[in-house]
Design brief:
The complex is a heterodimer of chains A (178) and B (87). By secondary structure, chain A is mainly α. Chain A contains six helices and no strands. The two termini of chain A are 29 Å apart. By secondary structure, chain B is mostly helical. Classes of the chains: A mainly alpha (178), B mainly alpha (87). At the A-B interface, helix 4 and helix 6 of A face strand 1, helix 1, helix 2 and helix 3 of B.
Chain lengths: 178, 87
């Protein structure tokens, strides 16, 4: 999606709000939400890894606290950005937002289905190799998958929508025309 | 077959001009037609094409025929249309 932010409150914006999508639009996307999404995944991965590893107790606690903060904090940030759009019912959204939400759910469905398939195949391979799998590991995987599937639509919206939308819109939206 | 409207199917509009003419902010216009104010921005920038129902709501609000507000061809700038001057 294109957002032009070059001189957003100046002559360039006034000229280009004539609704002719021009080739000279600048594609700008501040990666805040993508960074938070990646931080969340990394935090969760580190948390799971530390729980599985036998580390020094003090180090474990430090890493666990940092990983949980990164994981939960990032989820909170992503949700705050796009909670309304990703989870609201039709009555609270307009047609453009409904379209974005539906597209996010479709993409989340595809990603989730692929992830479930991959995990399922991996599980069958592990069982086929007669490897010993701990109940804790199974619980971790199931919990991770469940959390991931629940958060996927919001994550997709956060990943695909531009960060600077609010900043761009607010200048003109709330002001009376001169 | 089965292909819906894509992001490439741009419907051009004069919402920005008409809104400014009538002294409306994006938020006021959004409330009048029942959409979020961000959607007005997307429409004005040509980054979203409205449904037929929404297009009619705009036309009714501006009290103009729908083809005066929306077109599948780019609108001729007023300076060119009225004064025959290329911009």
């Amino acid at each position: 999606m294109r957002i032009f932010s070059k001189e957003a409150d100046g002559w360039w914006e006034r000229l280009t709000t004539m609704c002719r999508p021009g080739e000279d639009r600048v594609e700008v996307r501040q990666p805040i939400r993508r960074v938070t999404a990646v931080t969340s995944v990394v935090g969760y991965g580190v948390l799971m890894a530390v729980l599985e590893l036998d580390l020094d107790a003090f180090v474990s606690i430090l890493v666990i606290v940092a990983a949980v903060a990164a994981w939960i904090g990032s989820i909170y940030v992503v949700y705050e950005f796009r909670r309304r759009l990703a989870n609201a019912p039709d009555a609270e959204l307009d047609e453009r937002e409904v379209r974005i939400r539906d597209r996010a759910y479709l993409q989340a469905h595809r990603i989730g289905s692929t992830a479930l398939f991959v995990v399922g195949v991996a599980a069958m391979v592990v069982v086929g190799l007669d490897a010993t799998v701990s109940v804790e590991a199974v619980v971790d995987v199931v919990f991770s998958l469940g959390m991931g599937l629940v958060a996927l639509p919001a994550a997709v919206v956060a990943w695909t929508e531009p960060d600077d939308e609010d900043a761009y819109e607010s200048a003109d939206a709330l002001a009376e025309p001169r | 077959m089965g292909r819906g409207a894509s992001d490439d199917d741009v419907i051009h509009n004069r919402i920005a001009v008409l809104r400014t003419e009538r002294g409306l902010s994006r938020k006021q216009l959004a409330e009048a037609v029942g959409v979020h104010y961000r959607t007005i921005g997307y429409l004005e920038r040509g980054e979203y094409s409205p449904s037929l129902a929404l297009a009619f709501r705009f036309a009714r609000l501006f009290d103009l025929p729908i083809e005066a507000v929306f077109s599948d061809e780019p609108f001729v700038p007023l300076s060119e249309q009225v004064y025959h001057r290329a911009t």
